[in-house]
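ok posting inputs for the uridine-5'-diphosphate job
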Amino acid sequence: MDLLVVGSGFFGLTVAERAAAAGRKVIVIDRRPHIGGNAYSEAEPETGIEVHRYGAHLFHTSNPTVWEYVNRFTTFTSYVHRVYTHHKDVVYPMPVNLGTINQFFQAAYSPSEARALIKEQAGEFDVKTAQNFEEKGIALVGRPLFEAFFRDYTAKQWQTDPHKLSGDIVSRLPVRYTYDNRYFNDTWEGLPTEGYTAWLERMADHPNIDVKLGVDYFDESQPLNRRATVGQLPIVYTGPVDRYFDYAEGALSWRTLDFEQEVLNTSDFQGTSVMNYPDLDAPFTRIHEFKHFHPERKEIFAQDKTVIMREFSRFANRDDEPYYPVNTSADRDGLLAYRELAKGEQDVHFGGRLGTYQYLDMHMAIGSALSMWRNDLAVQDD
Ligand code: FAD
Ligand code: UDP
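and the output
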């Protein structure tokens, strides 16, 4: 064995695939009973509808290297993500665009009129100098739209004072003064034609890769544990960085999600794949209706049943799945301390969303794994 990869998410599988292709023998372990980390999906048994087990995953990228790489394992459908939001019994397009603005203000503003209005409603806040989520949000869309669509949604999603949240969270969403309501700005987007799991399995399908599921790296009753492996061979670790160091610098804060899934006897519940619920009277943040991700699967799409999933957000305890790094200033201090500790670990490479405590989209996880392979691991071949 030449390399141990802890975690079979996109980061771990990308490193494993590259290493295997270069002739290394790789073992990938994962504590879950399936590969793929949070991108894993499976067919709901009654309907055959593909359900993204850990929340809806939309692939998008503007990185040509990543796009070329992922196309080795899957083709992509022409799905373009569009989201709607259900505020006070009216449905609006999201992210904020000219359609949202005109519907909200019952107006017919031109792009420049809408721009002037939002600037006035942003008041004292400016995108360049905004210090936190609230200031940045108001600077971007003005106070009335911020309060309608962002303030309470974010209260449900993060349960954190918006002054303590980074403005980067809200800048994930574009604001457009056109009627373009695409959720993402990237050059390429789509869903894997045969589903995420087929894609992930193809990445792992190499004679040099041995995947062992249901294996926890910190379980010393199994041989591939931290104590037995560190210093013996190169290790790529994609689990939570604080867990690796037994929380020596304190626990970093994470949000987790609870999903409530239902099969309904109706052909179409909400007419779209994702409906956000920005008001406090709905305890969930959004509802996913999975058949709308694949309208091209005609028979599955047309049936008189549908699968929906309500998404609830809360703080993660140690036993919960960590989904979103909260990234308060205390967390950032903790992360710096863990980075120092990580430097002292012999030939252990921390990567991925959990290993670096960064909110990484799939294309970012894959891109950074390709870089880690190239810069830190492949060179040992020379
Ligand atoms: P993960 O997928 O989390 O994989 C880490 C793996 O490590 C897991 O399988 C875990 O079981 C394993 N592991 C952890 N600890 C141990 C241990 N002790 N022993 C063994 N194994 C261990 N990205 C997009 O591009 N588009 C989206 O629409 C999108 N939506 C998302 C929605 C949600 C709710 C979430 C949480 C994320 C979303 N993402 C999305 C991000 C996407 O999930 C990540 O980019 C991707 O999963 C990162 O892969 P990773 O390998 O870093 O981590
Ligand atoms: N957000 C919001 N209202 C919405 C959608 C998003 O307030 O209708 C905020 C929220 O704080 C969220 C952030 O914008 O965490 C980023 O949104 P995104 O859709 O990228 O979140 P994700 O899909 O990662 O949960």
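notes: The chain has three domains: 3-80+191-253+325-381, 95-172, 254-315. The CA atoms of residues 102 and 108 lie 6 Å apart.
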